[in-house]
Amino acid sequence: MTQSPKTSAPPNRPPRAGMNAQERQQLNTVETQEWLDSLAYVFADAGDNRAAELLEELDHYAYFHGAPITFKQNTPYINTIDVEAQPEYPGDPEIERKIRNIIRWNAVVMVIKANKKSDGIGGHLSTYASAAELLEVGFNHFFRGHGAGQDRDLIFYQGHASPGVYARSFLEGRFDEARMNRFRRELQPEGAGLSSYPHPWLMPDYWEFPTVSMGLGPIQAIYQARFIKYLENRELKPRGDAKVWAFLGDGEMDEPQSIGAIRFAAYENLDNLIFVLNANLQRLDGPVRANSKVIQEFEALFRGAGWNVIKVIWDSKWDELLQKDYNGTIVKRFELLVDGESQRYAAFGGKELREKFFNTPELKALIEGWSDADLELLNRGGHDIHKIYAAYKAATEHKGSPTIIIPRTIKGYGLGESAQARNVAHQVKKLDFHTLKDLRDTLELPLTDEQVEHMEYYHPGPDSPEVKYALERRAALGGPIPARRVEYPHPTIPNGEFYEEFAKGSGDRQVSTTMAAVQIISKLLRDKEIGKLIVPIVPDEARTFGMDALVPRIGIYSPRGQTYTPVDSGSLMAYKESVNGQMLEEGITEDGAMASWIAAGTAYANHGVPTIPFFVLYSMFGMQRVGDLVWAAADQRARGFILGATAGRTTLAGEGLQHQDGNSHLQAYVVPNLKTYDPAFAYELAVIIESGIQRMYVDGIDEFYYVTVDNENELQPAMPADRSHEEIREGIVRGLYRLQKSAHKGKLRAQILAGGPAMGAAQEAVKALEAYGVAADLWSVTSYKELHQDALLAQRHNMLHPTEEPRVPYVAQQLSRENAPGVLISVSDYMKLGADGLNGHLDRKLWTLGTDGFGRSEAREELRDFFEVDAKHVVLATLYALQRDGKIKGDVVAKAIADLGIDPERDAPVLR
């Protein structure tokens, strides 16, 4: 585009100064028409692209000459794809209509039957009613299954539409009637049920992505699409034409996570990503944007972010009016329309439309001779398969940016006066007999009134034209969907010798466990067998975590490569971006990095590529920010490691309240298949990672790992040599092992349990206790969760088998009075509740110290004193426990308090 200098003279203009207002208006009208005629000539003679070039030149010229042109992110409130540009529909519209009708009916019946059998069991009717055409056009013509190989699509279904997806599988013969009757009844003795929403954990051969936690589908879809590009650019997956489809609700877009990553999708040029934003104009309780047009809002948002936007607003019947509306009267009326008004037309029909929409002489003239029944046929574009097909085809062919299709639909479409477009539509779980009969008649199904009353499913039979057509279309597109398949080559992983250097300790070099983690990742990256499968992921802290040395070696992934010379070019730590870069440096977004981790952690199932992700994050910023996505990861059986770096409430010196982590282990604890560890030493960390890779990627166990590592540089010890490494390795994995036995000959005995950053205080306390005649053994606790879960399973077994020899939990075996005499003391850099879970599973009380309360900006020594987890408080807790055990007198404890300089009147840290 050429630039017009602002200094150039404006063109000659008509002498308007002497004209009156009427003359000026007449001239303006003529002038406008001349411009429009000229543009029409260009369209006819040179085509759309030339017309666009001229308009761009004019816009540029006007800008440089000071014309006050307001930037607009919106196009008119009409369909993006003109009727003349619509491709011919490739399928059989009539048989597809019959298929939709059957599925609509069975979806409704399934939900109603479930609620009749168990009142309040729930389910949703209205979402699928609005999305049926959107999904069926995809099922019949676009969504490619596993048989398509590298072209297989990944589909995020709108969670509340699951009844319709189940009903299609019933038509295809994948589910029988008995299973349909177990919708939301997954614990029935008759067999497997159907989960409420898409849950891969509950239906691991069917669903692939959990989506019903609002806002998580969009961000996950974006990073799944990016990870496909990552795999292809790194040659871990053959290049293909796979698309990621995400079906979303307009109300769902209120969630910040729904739109938080859309700019990233455009920046990454994710033309393999298609959002289908089902604009049925309703949230759960009512209109999304009753006083405006939500579709226009989304268009502006996504166009501004760099997306290709396709609006599907009006159906084919409206084309008749638009084609004879030479003055643009209807388009102007569209612009005045608000969504609250639209809902009334959808709810009350043709009469309301005639009175309220066609409310000017010009508009009335357009519908002259039309009956109310004719007006009823003026529908929304999201229910017109021809419009949907055109949008989908354009989206799949678009290159260079992601696409969002925004179809306008009616929530509860076809469900009658009690649901269609009503504010209560989302909550409707039941329909009365009269409404069901009307629905049957509307859907033209051969069911008797008695069958309707009994709420019978309708299946036309396996040899019916409808079933044959549905199966043929799916066969042509690569087989049935949804379908989750786990088929991947099990990698050859390093054996114990690979980690031997970490068992030897760090010698005279001080190393934090965060640095040890980076060293392990670095070594894994060099491994010839699995090095290419390692996916390091950081939000924006690679240098903080000491990972900057990896950057020049493996590169940061960028689809553009590196188009500039970095400021540190030539240095050993030069910043390096590369098309085949291995590290994913996601910027300041824990949610985005976690979504990226999920994509990598599920690649074994989604792509048959067992990538092993290591997501390294600030522990305090991690679990509490990404907790919902962690649950989504657990649901979809993700595998990999999340490393909570700079962990512990007293290790992150100087940072204070919002940075110091004493709670992430409790937040991680609640996820059933998330194993949590807090190693104190590098060799423990190595054993945990080795075991995790073996369990997840060789044994195929659907679990993942949260491992905290700290930033306190210390001499890393060698693995104890007083017993076999196998014994110690077992203890590390199971959560507890004796680190050292006391050589002191004192009569008083104690067992000190510590892990992670608290180990140093425990080691000091063991030595200090000798002065009080206490011989203390030291135990390393790598996982309170592992110990607690094992104890709970033993307790459950014993309760259910009261006549059998009771099982003894692993922790109770290790800490029995015979094996570990004396009082039990636990010290942790995390909240006391983690260790407290063991009480009730041991033969005596476990006294716990922890860091309950808010953090402070201070040095480590002062922080440990403040939280009462330093060596002197461990000594005090041990002596107090001995007093309570009747082994020493209270005055001994009181003297120790004075000798240790502890203020007994100081407020508890949790209160300060």
What does this structure look like?
This protein is α/β, with parallel strands linked by helices. It contains 36 helices and 20 strands. The strands form five sheets. It has a six-stranded parallel sheet with strand order 10-7-11-12-14-13, with helices on both faces. α1 packs across α2 (48-64) and α3 packs antiparallel against α4 (126-141). Residues 1-10 have low confidence and may be disordered.
Name the structural class. Answer: alpha/beta
* Helix content bin: 40-55%
- Tell me about the biggest sheet? 6 strands, parallel
Mean pLDDT metric:
92
Terminus-to-terminus distance: 65 Å
Give a brief outline of the structure.
The chain has 912 residues and is an alpha/beta fold. A 6-stranded parallel β-sheet has the order 10-7-11-12-14-13, with helices on both faces. A 5-stranded parallel β-sheet has the order 1-2-3-5-4, sandwiched between helices. The protein has a 5-stranded mixed β-sheet with strand order 16-18-17-19-20.
Feature tags:
5-stranded parallel sheet, 42% helix, 6-stranded parallel sheet, 20 strands, 10% strand, 912 residues, elongated, single chain, 36 helices, disordered N terminus, alpha/beta
